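fwd from M.: "can u put these together and see what the complex looks like"

so here's what she sent:
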Amino acid sequence: MIVVLKPQSEQSQVENLINWLKEQNVDVHISEGHFQTVLGLIGDTAKIDDDLVASLEIVETVKRVSEPFKSANRKFHPDDSIIDISGVKIGGGNFAIIAGPCSVESEAQMIEVSTKVKAAGAKLLRGGAFKPRTSPYDFQGLKAEGIELLLEAKKVTGMPIVTEIMNANHLPLFEHVDVIQVGARNMQNFELLKELGKTNKTILLKRGLASTLKEMLMSAEYIMAGGNENVILCERGIRTYETYTRNTLDLSAVPMLRELTHLPIIVDPSHATGLSRLVKPMAMAAAACGADGLMIEVHNNPKAALCDGAQSLTPEQFADVAKRVEAIREVVKAEYDPTF
Amino acid sequence: MIVVLKPQSEQSQVENLINWLKEQNVDVHISEGHFQTVLGLIGDTAKIDDDLVASLEIVETVKRVSEPFKSANRKFHPDDSIIDISGVKIGGGNFAIIAGPCSVESEAQMIEVSTKVKAAGAKLLRGGAFKPRTSPYDFQGLKAEGIELLLEAKKVTGMPIVTEIMNANHLPLFEHVDVIQVGARNMQNFELLKELGKTNKTILLKRGLASTLKEMLMSAEYIMAGGNENVILCERGIRTYETYTRNTLDLSAVPMLRELTHLPIIVDPSHATGLSRLVKPMAMAAAACGADGLMIEVHNNPKAALCDGAQSLTPEQFADVAKRVEAIREVVKAEYDPTF
Amino acid sequence: MIVVLKPQSEQSQVENLINWLKEQNVDVHISEGHFQTVLGLIGDTAKIDDDLVASLEIVETVKRVSEPFKSANRKFHPDDSIIDISGVKIGGGNFAIIAGPCSVESEAQMIEVSTKVKAAGAKLLRGGAFKPRTSPYDFQGLKAEGIELLLEAKKVTGMPIVTEIMNANHLPLFEHVDVIQVGARNMQNFELLKELGKTNKTILLKRGLASTLKEMLMSAEYIMAGGNENVILCERGIRTYETYTRNTLDLSAVPMLRELTHLPIIVDPSHATGLSRLVKPMAMAAAACGADGLMIEVHNNPKAALCDGAQSLTPEQFADVAKRVEAIREVVKAEYDPTF
Amino acid sequence: MIVVLKPQSEQSQVENLINWLKEQNVDVHISEGHFQTVLGLIGDTAKIDDDLVASLEIVETVKRVSEPFKSANRKFHPDDSIIDISGVKIGGGNFAIIAGPCSVESEAQMIEVSTKVKAAGAKLLRGGAFKPRTSPYDFQGLKAEGIELLLEAKKVTGMPIVTEIMNANHLPLFEHVDVIQVGARNMQNFELLKELGKTNKTILLKRGLASTLKEMLMSAEYIMAGGNENVILCERGIRTYETYTRNTLDLSAVPMLRELTHLPIIVDPSHATGLSRLVKPMAMAAAACGADGLMIEVHNNPKAALCDGAQSLTPEQFADVAKRVEAIREVVKAEYDPTF
């Protein structure tokens, strides 16, 4: 951490600051210029509060050199994390597609969709039981019943299931769920993250509506700091001023996160674009830049979907997407598989 | 709601759609052009799901004419709501300043700050007991003890208190709190909003980090739909690419929200700018464009604040700001007070 | 175009509006609801000014159904445009990589870089002679001398050249330049676009720093309205609040533009990310989602580049990228080539 | 400027860098930590290219401590600049309102509007002769004839005139224009800025559609580096994801720029919000936070305005706004007038 002091700071104040910093167990190297003094902090600066230091009267600016995340940081964990979800591996060269409807609607739907997406190559089944909707008047999901229907489909197809949690009090309902999803609107619901950190479930953490990569990694850190290292990151588009697409899919996030963290990184082209006809090219692009997996909305009858139908594929369209993604994976596998 | 159909849609599909819409209890007016047919939906369209309709194969685009919020909507409630907080009124021409430290630190601090801000004209006391921090390693607040210290200060000064909630399970701790704040990161924590909708506490709802005004109103609607109409909206800056200020304070939100809703609207210049020296001009500007109140960070010793010190004022600086704001209020009162 | 009128508009004003619209040579279909009247305009609405109509006292909102761009619109020109640049084709299944340094520095540099990128598969040579720099004190390019050096390299390698124009008065210097680039900061320099519309040069139009796709297409329309239909669109990242990358590369723009326009679409991963180590994965992703080409910065000695060195590849790194992109193209060719 | 080197950089490379930096006439202070070395550059670092240094293999990150703008920088010019426009002063406590129509349409219009806005307190007359329009099919202004009509109005009312330039070749037409406006889309048209830097006209520089304050100051620097120090900065809203208003007016820019530069700062609430009914509150807010002036669209018949009518006031509405702004100015004058 670099602390640039204001010109003409009082010597006694500078000394107070240096002493306080040393009490926080960091070393302080002092560089005095003609006009300004710069302090270089060495050691475990993750616990030093930027805001606190920046607020001091004699401080002009503060810049972190090392990242404030530790458990998620590739520097301290150079090898890719491989997460094993009831036998399905993701990360470290293992690629997996998660597919299924936005909302769980009925048993017939779940059996049909899960059977078809499994046949087409999907490894995990998704489906929303608890739905975060902008309007209190929109459909909020089947809740506990939705989880039951997912478990039914899991029994039939053997696919591990992924579903979103909105309230830590619902955790008992998630006992047999394989992957718990934290949605974009809850990415900084720190109370929820802390509770998930106490479980040993795999957590699929979606990037916030307008979050930076650093904030996403800090949210992963909340989960990991509690002892749960099974975290998968999911890029799902961010909010911009472009209106043709629902969000702007930030695919540079994939190689950038790859550099910053050892955690697996997947991409959700359905929510990112909001348009089913853009899912195929963006799924292919995500595979090409090294994503460890995809999350794709598939509905047996998109026209009747209770939510987000405009972004759902039919099972037939999904099969085509999965085939093209597989072809891209063949080309890039050697590029992104550390064991190759 | 206007539904524009795609050119050459099949007549049978169009009829299916019209029938389905009528089943949702809305009237449908049909306008057939040379190329495209446009449906105008009349009636209670708030419960019609835009996404669902937009997802249909024959639909090109959907546009809402009326707003999807009802309880918060000025159209259905033309008069300003006046909220009475243990005797302090806000809204409908009543202006109030909320002041206090970002974090509650000690009894001495709270007594000193609250006494001074009250003397300077503040009507409510704020202080963070539960703190949402981006990093799990940063100070998270004194929690229950923090609320106790706020209640101590309330006993001494008689000022109603405002403090943030992060978890609905903590509600019992807020029994004697006058105003419960929902922070920016929880603006779309719908589970929390629903629980707050079941209480009769005044809720101070802060705009999300990168939320639109419509989303903020829909979040207010979540609280109000549960029966609690005591909601105050708070503009606190939104995320942009400008880096000199922490956020971009969107003051146009004040007159825009005034038009859209009857709820009181306050402004938080401290979090918006992140710089204590910008608080005064922005507080004055907020008063000038018709805000019903302000929320300002004040700390007895900003240099030692455990968080967000860079944006805190000293009690002396606050007194100066309050005086200037009062002068602006004198000029604009007639402009914004409907009872004048 | 849909015009929603305000409730209780005066009948005489509504009639005035309808008459005025008919004078603009559009048909008007009227749909009267219980509360609101909706007008549907049919015909050539591209010349109707949205702002003007929206400004009328009786108008609540205006929504375009058809796009305001015509020459660039795929609806009126269903087949992909194929642009022939001195024998190098781009668009309609033809893929081409443009490579070269950010700034032209010397003859030796240009000969070395162009020879090497050609050997690695690049089809066009780029190099900046006129450089738009944020600071007046930064290097502004070799100007006329830079164009001479590009033409030297063209003589040696036979590669057509691409270079940026900043001032229409410089057009005579571009007589032998094959592709004239309009940079992001000039995307809405309409005076420049109009002048380029009078030439028959191929124009490479970069997306503005924070432009929407619609604005980019309208800028293409400025060039095409002048009679020059040789326009290539270039996605180069847009401005957001993410700071790890210089801009946020919006790859969804590729399939979205593909749908909206017949013009070729290329991607510049170097400027988009600002980081040479992200160029390879993003170039592969761009090819995977259907880009017609790439523009990549290559420098013989990135450490000494006079500008933008952090995003330049060495010729050896470029050869590796080109090979991987070629492999992706093999897989996706059938997907994006209309003649397949 | 602070340069943080990568851990384990080769000593010879570090020495090369230090020698090169010294050749650029800056002093280099070296601070060696356990893991990383930090260089502090002292002296005239404005001419050092950040990008170049950041691109070096051994450099991890670069941070500017001093601003890269000099002529516009308050540090080197502590007193407010006061610009005299044919007798009308702006800056340093002098407040002025610029008013007039978006587009010049006719002599009768200009005489009527200018007479009325002058009577209401406006000091300068604006009117667009050359209009930057997103679509080539929209009205582009009366051009040379428009300037003639402005000069007619000036003759009648004696008000200095403000009008936009889009092409440096048109400069001869601006000979009798008092203030030349550079529009948002041309804020980084560096060729135009350089030409304006060679004149002695007052330049009103509008903030770009999505520009940072630093970029706006660097664009002012382009003009000032040419010798023309008569620059007025204009905040006119920036692009965000909020859709109720056309742009997001960033009023914090006023006190922030006040700190960074000595140049006068005005605010354009008409273009910022795009809604005439928000002009009054935002004009009052701008005055309250210390703007040196306002630019407000006024049209004698907003319903018939050829462009941007939705944001125009009638002369009567303008008179009301001017009166309220005057009342705010009375309150805040002492706050912002350095001569008080």
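replying to her w this: The interface with chain D takes residues 2, 4, 27, 29-36, 38, 40, 42, 60-61, 63, 65, 210, 239-241 of chain A (CB under 8 Å).
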